[in-house]
Amino acid sequence: MKMRKYVYGEPFETEAVLRDIEISEGNVAYGEVSLEEGFVFTYQMAENDIVYGLGEANRGINKRGYCYISNNTDIPEHTEDQRSLYGAHNFLVVSGEKTFGLFVDYPARLTFDIGYTRMDTLTIRCEEANLYLYLIEGESAYEIVRAFRKLIGRSYIPPKFAFGYGQSRWGYVTKEDFYKVAEGYRKNHIPMDMIYMDIDYMQDYKDFTLNKKNFQDFPEFVQKMKEQNLRLVPIIDAGVKVEKGYEVYEEGVKNGYFCKREDGSDFVAAVWPGDTHFPDMLNEDARRWFGEKYRILTEQGIEAFWNDMNEPAIFYTPEGVKKAQEVVKRFLQDTEGETSIFEVRDAIMNLANNKEDYQSFYHQVNGTRIRHDKVHNLFGYYMTRAAGEAFERIAPEKRFLMFSRSSYIGMHRYGGIWTGDNKAWWSHLLLNIKMMPSLNMCGFLYTGADLGGFGADTTRDLLLRWLALGVFTPLMRNHAALGTREQECYQFENIADFRHIIEVRYRLIPYLYSEYMKAALDDDLYFKPLAFTYPKDSMALQVEDQLMLGNEIMIAPIYTQNAKGRYVYLPEEMKFVKFLSDGTLYEQILPAGHHYVEIALNEVPLFIRQNKCIPIASSAEYVEAIDTKNLTLIGYQNAEYTLYEDDGIHKTYDNPSNLKKLILK
Ligand code: GLC
Question: What is the architecture, at CATH level 2, of domain 512-663?
Fold first, then answer.
């Protein structure tokens, strides 16, 4: 296996890569690099080459045939034509006639044209030739991915409770709202471990504050929830509200910790609280200061957070508003009809996440001033790093739950991600399936989508099918936007169906947790495309709606409305298992090949690979209550399984007693 590192110009040190590698001189080993206009890498793909990677990106597992842009964006419309989402994961693998991996360590806007302009050409392009290019050779795509993962360091490991189910909704405001959710689940015996607190828990959306009216005695509230074995997970937004007397604002201004305009004044961008300043997450002192603020909540009993709006999202800036006002004014005064309504519309629409705004503020990194757009894709990474580094100081032996919306490779060491504002669309359930292995390739193991869909009104069947996928994603969270149909599981008819599906999650946690831990500790994948396990099977190479999970199982979720089952492709003989609604199992050995399998709305299917087995537990209402001492093995007779188990709280990963051999007799 060969790994090469090329340097162009003066790259920004993103700290995505941990290992020191000697710099290679001369031409790249594959493809061609031109520095005539910025940086352009081109490679002629063979007809059957597959391209894997790009993490949180649109479309398929095979990225071929479209154009993707790394430009972290707050984008609630994940339609098929969307080229940028919230993350920049610039790693891909070309697999076919020649097989190699590429990581472009470049923190600004970067384009991957993968057979879009020309069907046979892969072009990677960016404006400035200041970057590191890593090239990895290997026998297979899988081997290359694993080498890459070693390069970027161990993935984030959450506490075990984070493998439980979580309920979230933008719109829970008072304590009573939260108690109602707790009661809705506990009374109906639907397992749950976490309730998420969206922006309304804060006072006027000010980070690290609590709403004065609703959360007077917050530590007591946190404790009361804990007594029900529920953890509260507050959101932290990137922007700090501009408000005289607000401690975080005052400290940030005084110490110069906020991003600045060219003239040295603090840059203003409006987000949920109205005008905010962005903490300079790239500046070590500012980062430490911001990270220390998480203590305000950990000292009140909080052990879990989600970081949001950290692309960073901008609704508008005062400068942008002024420009838009001028267009509107011109339109209103225009008697000749020279200003088109479309110009007005664009002026308003372009207020948010505007390119010019991102070019108008600066970071201070090791004494050098850097314009934001040159390092744009690092903001979420460094915000989450601020928290991660703080947790190390707060309780070095403990694990905290942390996931972020925006990210860059490197952040995978500090937290997981959720995939942002999807919609209650069946197509987004499918997108969720496809995105998972790509995210794993880039180091992001603790991930999941908003189950049921964030925007738009969900339906009972969509939520059930999506939960049946969520059973397998490390982050299993039901989350919805303000104003949408309420989608807590107890809001629908026949709650037993929901209970059953979430119970299956808890029954599988010993296996899912074990596979997660083994993947994280060994720089391996939790979710893999079938092609990684069966690289010689030409059919398996094409499958995009089934995934390998760990070493033992394959999943094939349903993602079509009114479907009573689905076609699956089995590259080898497997045992088809259905968790039936009465708590029993349906098991059937199926030969390799294509099959139609029936799966009711209240069933969870999985496929156990030949000569393998997995442990299952009895269900429990929260993770800690799972009886891991009495596991049952299902699958093939005489198969062995190595179970990883630890206390789920501390970082004692390397204890040999964490591994146990189990045999299905
Ligand atoms: C963003 C987040 C979403 C959250 C909302 C309000 O849209 O992506 O999850 O509910 O902000 O905080």
Answer: Sandwich (2.60)
